[in-house]
Design brief:
mainly alpha, 3 strands, about 220 residues
Amino acid sequence: MVATSTKPIAFTPAWREGDPAAPVFLLTPAGVVERSLMEAELAGRYNAGRVYSFELLAAIRSGVVTLLDGDEAQGRILELIDIEQESGEAELTPADVALLAEVRKILAASWPDYRDLREQMERRRELAPLVALRYFCTGITAPGVTFKRGLDGKVSEATLRALDPLEMTAAGNRAFQMAYLTEEDRGNSARPSSSGDGPATSTSDAPSTPAGRSTDDTGAKTPG
C-alpha cells in the first residue's frame, strides 16, 4: 500500500543539489494508517520495532545486577547509570563516561536482554529508511534507474538495486521523517535541511523521537 492522499514532494540529497544528473525522488507524506502499516511491517516482519529508553535502561540495570553480583563496583555503576539517566553525561566525569561505555560493551557481548535490544535498534536503523522508501516513494528520476512497483504495489527490488546506496538511504530517511510531520510542519519544510538528508546515525543508547521516548536510530528526527 502506497501513500496517495497528498501531493508528492521532490527530494534530492543535499550533496547532489545543483548536479544536472542528480536523482530526484518523489516522496508522498504518509497518512496515519499508512504510517502505522509501515511500523507494523518493521515490527512484525523484520523484528525492527521501536526500542524505548525504559526497555534499554531495564536491560542495562538487570545486566549489571546479575553479572556484577557480589562485585564492589556494582553499586557505583548503578549510581552512574541513574545519574546519566536523570542528568545526562554533563554530570559525569570523563572517567565515568568511559566506565559506562565499557559496561555497555560488556553487556552487548554477555547479556542477552541488552544484546537483543541493540540488535533490534540496528535492524531498525538499517531497514526503516528502505521500508519507508518502498511505501512512500511514487517516482524516481535518475540515470540508469527505471521506476517500477512490485506485486505488492511498493517500489520494486530491481529499482532499489539500481540506486546509489547512500542516496537511497538519504531519500528513505526523508520519507520516514515526512511520515511523522504534521500538516503545519509540511508547510514549513518544503525544502528539507541538509542535516536530514544523510544516513541516520546515533551515538547514544537513548535518543528520543516525535514518535515517543524511543531509542530507534531511524526516528523522525533524521531519518531513528
